[in-house]
Amino acid sequence: MWANAETPFSGPARPPLQPKRHVITEDYKVSKAVLGLGINGKVLECFKKEGGAKYALKMLQDCPKARREVEMHWRASNCQHIVKIVDVYENMHQGKKCLLIIMECMEGGELFNRIQDRGDQAFTEREASEIMRDIGKAIQFLHSMNIAHRDVKPENLLYTSIRPNAVLKLTDFGFAKETLNNKSLATPCYTPYYVAPEVLGPERYDKSCDMWSLGVVMYILLCGFPPFYSNHGLAISPGMKKRIRLGQYEFPNPEWAEVSEQAKQIIRHLLKTDPAQRMTISEFMHHHWINQSKEVPQTPLYTSRVLKEERETWHEVKDEMTSALATMRVDYDQVKIKTLEESNNPLLNKRRKKQSSTAGAAYN
Questions:
Q1: Domain of life here (predicted)?
Q2: What is the mean pLDDT of the chain?
Q3: Are 257 and 299 contacting, i.e. CB atoms less than 8 angstroms apart?
Q4: Whose CA is closest to 168, among 207, 208, 139?
Q5: Where in the chain is the domain with CATH 1.10.510.10?
Q6: What is the CATH number assigned to the segment(s) 25-104?
Q7: Annotated binding residues, as ranges?
């Protein structure tokens, strides 16, 4: 069932989602061109038959988790800084029931790619402030609806067009989860570079995990490299996990030498390892560096240069993170925990044989 419940957030609510059941190709021409890769698969190019407008098509296998993802994204589409869902279809595809989501096409590409490709024009601290304000608006909207996005990262921040006045928007609700009645979260859904320390451990967590991710994005935006990374080129490593849990990072020179103390202060408050001490989205949006962007100094940053130099490294890291994310593409509501007797784990089987031979030797 699709949820029709009222959600407390500012602005007029979208009407309840009513998926269309006729075949999508009656309304859209679907291309084979891949626009991007989300948590749950490819995003394809498609065109509205009436008028020829270009859109993006995301396909999900129909299940309770997919329905929750689409319903949350549909409600959140009301925000100017969240990618808008235009249509949803319930269709059969290769013998399986699927949800086909038509979204606005974000032709301006990913946030970091846009900064990498700006040529000789310097990327400034003021521009970073304006970008963080727009990302903050998306998170503020979601948190007002008691939704934790849980995958705030540059790859999920896209521009509407290549024009200078393009709008930055958040997408991909594959890990999003409602946190009504202060309900905490437990499932370990995350992208390694941007994960909050509490998400790594066995403890429960809440939507403040998005604020940590916001801090990581802001850090990279101001210097071009992440605050936490594996020294061995892995998506995540024991040493990297330890540094995240302890909140061990630095503001090294020369990249951070000219960055304002205000910007560093925000990052320190966002990257608090204790979620209770971490800056909230309301505090973030009311900070002078965020809501008074015109007063932020136009200090040239190293970001564009570093991102260009590390372009290949970033591609490798993204591939590693995609592999890491593949292990989390699970509908946890559908998981059945096997008993030890039912399990066919190779390591467990080896131990069983060893125990059996030991027991046999005891009787001989």
A1: Eukaryota
A2: 80
A3: no
A4: 139
A5: 109-305
A6: 3.30.200.20
A7: 58
What residue numbers does the annotated binding site for ATP cover?
Answer: 58
Give the homologous superfamily in CATH for domain 109-305: Transferase(Phosphotransferase) domain 1 (1.10.510.10)
For the record, the structure tokens of 351 come out as 């131990």
Catalytic residue among 151, 172, 206, 210: 151
Strand ranges across the sheet with 54-61 = 28-38, 41-48, 54-61, 96-104, 85-93
CA distances from 357 to 345, 348, 351 (A): 18, 14, 10
pTM: 0.80
Q: Where does the pLDDT of residue 190 fall: very low under 50, low under 70, confident under 90, or very high at 90 and above?
A: very low
207/72 Cα distance (integer angstroms): 15
Q: What letter represents residue 155's amino acid?
A: E
Cα distance between residue 294 and residue 126, in whole Å: 7
Active site residue 151: yes
CA distance 176 to 318: 20
Residue 234 has pLDDT above 70, yes or no: no
